[in-house]
Design goal:
With 1049 residues, this protein is α+β, with helices and mostly antiparallel strands. 47% of the residues lie in helices and 22% in strands. It folds into five domains: 98 residues; 87 residues, no CATH class; 120 residues, Sandwich (Tumour Suppressor Smad4), CATH 2.60.200; 336 residues, no CATH class; 227 residues, no CATH class. The strands form seven sheets. Strands 1, 2, 3, 20, 21, 22, 23, 24, 25 and 26 form a ten-stranded antiparallel sheet that branches. Strands 6, 7, 12, 13, 15, 16 and 17 form a seven-stranded antiparallel sheet that branches. A hairpin with an 8-residue loop joins strand 31 and strand 32.
Length: 1049
């Protein structure tokens, strides 16, 4: 027994559990991405062996409390977070096996106490016209591999009657099922029709001799009566069509158009887009003979599944097919076996709350002038036997009543019907056990950083001892270089109408003065998302997105915007739209030079005004996986659209509509339909054209007085009718200053240059003790601190401008990671200048990464779920943890380089430096792990307080937990014989960083989930990943040989 307990309580088992748990979760995230959440639960998360791992964790943590005597006063900090994990795991068990959750759907004005389970069941109601019984058997099925399920129930209406034994045996599970035609010469002909009238692609198979209702339009195939709106029939071997409504058609092959005449028979054309009464459809091929079968389609969470069961009663069996899935209660199959009647459905189980909820009013708040939801809320009345009260449920504001929590989940609005979707959670006991665990965890992790007699305190003491031993600092030259990208300037395809020299001449002669440009820059506009911002920001975004540059032909962005607005016809012929490097197919399609960097707007259209890439982009968007060529085409089409909106004046939404409920602003072309009256109508229609005319005159005379008056008039109009959303003058000025200074791009050079200089002078210190070198090193550190302050001011400026914490999207989180890296580098580098150099270098690299064009630095409005103080707490902590982990990774690389450059002469110095860096590395990783753990579980609390589930196995949160497991393993290696040592620790501090890269980038761009920035595109692994793996392998190999020779005892 003692041997078994020694194994269960051993640190070796701890390491194995960390590793196996992390690997299992990592595999599960990819299973979920490819096969869905239900499959990942069926194969991993809800399996007995996965739960067994957690049980072993509980036993191991509990045993370690006594094995390492954590109950002693000096070890209470460590005891707290070990006990915390025990409670968290116990709480998770209560949540899984005792609690339940679902969704409550209420139409406005309606009352209900019913909600639908989040878990899928085989639901069956059996009756014999006298007695009724309902059974609900949970089904967790996998889209990958085989499934088996068998349930047996008894049905005994009355004691004096016989007992019926009913068995349900799963025959087949068809995920994301859809009806497909399987070709068969003995089958019936079917007409294949593809339509996208509702905005998404739908396929329909119309059997010969039948009629289908497609979006309230009847379509028939060879039905003699021809009563449908659209009738297809044979005349000989030719397919004919008769429509009861007029329409038109567009043949895709040659773009030829024609009319569909009402009640007129016509020869039908395949591969032609037909539009009849709002129904847009294409029939790609002639009718084919076949049999309709239920088959599995592409993964689509919006699709239902099909389950097939054999139902047996008293030796009589009937096979049934049930079409359903999550929250389904409507698709019910009715059948009879013997004298028993059945109603069965696959989907949600109907549950009841002990009180009723009435939806009095659903409220949707939109961003100013936008259709995007800013917030939504449900005004409800809780009706109970003892009390009745009103309550307002909205995001992050929940109803907690009688052990049930109701959360604002989503909504559905169709016409005048408004419907709220409230998440319902019944998990009082599990939540409180888990929350107590979280509280102990937060205190325990915080204590280990600040109290005595902890590993972290021992590391600080060890670092002080090493500093005292060091006679001089020795740093080996590391060949570090900052790569800078140089833009290639290809010969631009020359327009037919004007030469490049003529265009440059016209632009130069019509360029407005900088003084007036600055006045125009402060004019406020409302963007498509409803954000209020100065024109300067709009112009910067336009030039950056369309041309991939910060200026164009000697003009700043505002001058470019003014020029486009004033001379749109000229800009049709200016090569301004950026083309992706290396994509010669796009260039051939447009008819521009193969090395052209830019294309003109007119290059994208033929002589008939038809887009050359429109059809290509439309087809590419329908695909789940897109090629690099198609992805580039979509990006370029977005640039063309953005420029077209600017050319037409649609981007300059500078006129607020008086007394508009949604504070909508419109552009000059939109003013005709915006409902302006009287003198306001005259002003909004004429002010901008008059301004443009005066601008031309002012350029000639040099006097902008009258032009400025008109511009001031527009600004006064904005302040008068748009005062509710008009930003303060301070905010406008700060945003313009933020745009112009471009602080984060500047800091790439500042941090990069200063880190290289610091490393050079640290190397010089090895060979010289001259005081001036020491002064230069200290001076560089002061300068780096100044750059860090500038970085901080940049983040605070972005926070003030947007009104949201600056870590709500991919770009912001990366620049915040850079800030956190520098912060912890300075904090931990008080006793190690090399640590500051390493942190500065990795900060420069991180900011350089953020500056790449695939990340959009645009300041945008938040999604409603993110508009919470939890964002400031949870995201800031979890993203800040990436800073110490980044620092640990670079310190690991430095340490291995020091090992490689060790020789018999410098071994003593190198040994001190490696010990120093290893200690700082462990301290840095410890801080990172504390922050990541606290941030991850705070995210669980946010999720629980927002939509009733503190853990949902979303890929992002799962990979955050994987990272915790990986770094916990790294920190526990010192307790495991065979894994302890400086070489192993530093190597694993580099390898472990891959989990952070996967958590941040891999999840966002490889996997789909709640936290994803992009999904659907085929993601090709960058070659830098392979180079990085090769680099770490070679570095580790060479370092191992030197470590074995000089350091291994």
């Amino acid at each position: 027994m003692k041997k078994i307990l020694d194994i269960l309580y051993s640190t070796r088992l701890t390491a194995v559990l960390f590793f196996v748990f992390a690997v299992a979760m990592g595999i599960a995230t990819f299973i979920e991405n490819d096969f869905g959440t239900q499959t990942s639960k069926a194969l991993v998360y809800n399996t007995w062996w996965f739960e067994l791992i957690m049980i072993f964790f509980v036993i191991n943590f509990f045993g370690n409390i006594f094995r390492y005597r954590l109950y002693k006063k000096e070890k209470w900090g460590v005891l707290l977070f070990h006990a915390a994990f025990l409670l968290i795991l116990i709480g998770a068990g209560v949540t899984r096996y005792v609690s339940y959750e679902g969704i409550m759907v209420i139409d406005e004005g309606e009352t209900t106490s019913t909600f639908f389970s989040d878990t899928n069941y085989l639901n069956v109601v059996v009756d014999n016209n006298e007695f009724q019984k309902e059974t609900n058997n949970q089904l967790l099925l996998s889209a990958w591999g085989s499934n088996s399920a068998k349930f047996t129930e008894t049905f005994q209406p009355k004691k004096d009657k016989g007992q019926h034994e009913i068995s349900y045996n799963l025959v087949d599970y068809i995920p994301w099922s859809e009806q497909k035609l399987v070709l068969d010469e003995n089958g019936v002909e079917h007409l294949f029709l593809v339509e996208s009238s509702s905005g998404s692609r739908h396929e329909h198979y119309i059997k010969r001799g039948t009629t289908q209702n497609i979006h309230n339009i009847l379509v028939s195939f060879d039905v003699p009566q021809k009563n449908a709106s659209v009738n297809f029939y044979y005349e000989g071997d030719n397919l004919k069509m008769v429509s009861k409504n007029n329409g038109d058609w567009l043949r895709m092959a040659d773009q030829k158009r024609g009319q569909i005449i009402k009640d007129s028979a016509q020869h039908f054309q395949f591969l032609t887009l037909h539009t009849i009464k709002g129904l847009q459809f294409v029939i790609p091929r002639a009718p084919e003979k076949g049999i309709m079968k239920t088959l599995s389609g592409e993964k689509d969470n919006e699709k239902y599944d099909t389950v097939i069961f054999d139902v047996t009663v008293n030796n009589e069996t009937k096979r049934i097919s049930l079409y359903g899935g999550k929250f389904n209660v409507d698709n019910v199959e009715e059948f009879s076996i013997g004298d028993l009647n059945f109603r069965a459905w696959y989907g949600a189980k109907k549950l009841e709350t002990p009180f009723k909820v009435k939806l009095n009013d659903f409220q949707l708040e939109k961003y100013p002038g936008s259709e995007s939801a800013a917030a939504y809320a449900s005004e409800i009345t809780v009706i109970d036997d003892k009390e009745t009260f009103d309550f307002r449920i909205f995001m992050n504001n929940i109803l907690d009543y009688k052990g049930y929590k109701l959360f604002q989940s989503s909504y559905k609005i169709e016409g005048d019907n408004e419907q709220t979707h409230l998440s319902v959670n019944h998990d009082f006991v599990g939540t409180w056990i888990t929350y107590v665990g979280y509280t102990l965890l937060f205190f325990g992790l915080t204590f280990i950083l600040f109290i005595k007699n902890t590993r972290f305190n021992d590391l600080k003491n060890s670092l002080n001892k090493i500093k005292l031993k060091k006679a001089s600092l020795s740093v080996i030259i590391l060949f570090l270089s900052l790569n800078s990208t140089a833009q290639e300037h290809g010969d631009v395809h020359k327009p037919k109408e004007l030469s490049i020299a003529q265009i440059d001449s016209i632009l130069t002669s019509n360029k407005p003065s900088l003084e007036h440009t600055n006045e125009f820059s402060s004019l406020v506009i409302q963007d498509i998302g409803g954000r209020m911002k100065p024109t300067h920001t709009l112009a910067s975004e336009l030039v950056r997105k369309v041309a991939h540059t910060n200026s164009f032909k000697g003009m700043n962005p505002t001058q470019v915007l003014l020029s486009i607005t004033e001379m749109p016809m000229l800009w049709l012929n200016i090569p301004f739209i950026y083309l992706e490097k290396g994509n010669t197919q796009i260039r051939e399609l447009l008819g521009v030079a193969k090395d052209a960097k830019y294309a003109r707007f007119i290059d994208f259209y033929d002589t008939k005004g038809t887009s050359k890439i429109g059809e290509l982009v439309a087809e590419a968007k329908k695909k789940k996986i897109q090629s690099k060529f198609e992805t580039d085409a979509i990006k370029i089409e977005q640039r063309v659209w953005l420029l077209s909106q600017t050319l037409g004046g649609g981007m300059l939404r500078i006129y607020p509509i008086p007394n508009d409920e949604n504070n909508k602003w419109v552009s000059q072309p939109e003013t005709l339909k915006a409902g302006f009256k009287g003198t306001d109508s005259v002003f909004v229609r004429q002010s901008l054209p008059v301004y443009m005319q005066l601008l031309q005159n002012s350029r000639k005379s040099g006097n902008y007085t009258e032009t400025n008056k008109v511009l001031d008039g527009i600004k006064k109009f904005q302040k008068k009718f748009g005062k509710e959303v008009y930003p303060s003058e301070d905010k406008i000025e700060l945003e313009i200053m933020y745009n112009e200074f471009d602080v984060f791009n500047r800091l790439i050079k500042y941090f990069g240059l200063s880190s290289i200089l610091l490393i050079i002078f640290l190397i010089a210190q090895v060979f010289s003790n001259k005081k001036w070198i020491n002064y230069v090193v200290k001076g560089l550190i002061v300068i780096i601190i100044g750059f860090f302050i500038l970085h901080t001011l940049g983040l605070l400026s972005r926070w003030y401008i947007s009104g949201n914490a600056p870590w709500s999207n991919a770009y912001e989180s990366i620049i915040f990671v850079a800030w956190a890296t520098m912060f912890f580098g300075l904090s931990l580098g008080k006793k190690s200048t090399l640590t500051i150099a390493a942190a500065t270098f990795i900060t420069a690299i991180t900011l350089f990464f953020a500056s790449q064009n695939w990340l959009d630095p645009e300041i945008a409005n938040l999604q409603p779920v993110l508009n919470s103080w939890w964002l400031k707490v949870h995201v800031s902590i979890i993203v800040a943890s990436y800073g110490p982990f980044s620092l640990g990774m670079i310190l690991g690389i430095f340490s291995l380089f020091l090992m490689i450059f060790t020789n018999s002469k410098n071994k003593r110095k190198m040994d001190l430096h490696i010990k120093e860096l290893t200690i700082i590395n462990e301290m840095s990783i410890t801080v990172g792990l504390v922050l990541l753990t606290i941030g991850t579980f705070l995210g669980g609390m946010w999720a629980n307080e927002s939509w009733g589930r503190y853990w949902g196995w979303d890929p992002k949160e799962t990979w955050a937990l994987i990272s915790i497991m990986v770094y916990a393993f790294v920190l526990h290696m010192r307790l495991i014989p065979g894994l302890r040592g400086r070489y192993t620790f530093n190597l694993w501090s580099i390898i472990a960083f891959a989990s952070i890269m996967m958590t941040y980038f891999g999840v966002n761009f490889y996997l789909s989930g709640l936290h994803s920035y992009a999904s659907g595109d085929k993601v090709i692994t960058p070659t830098s990943v392979y180079y990085s793996v090769s680099f770490v392998f070679i570095l580790g190999l060479f370092a191992w040989f030197k470590f074995k020779k000089f350091y291994k005892k």
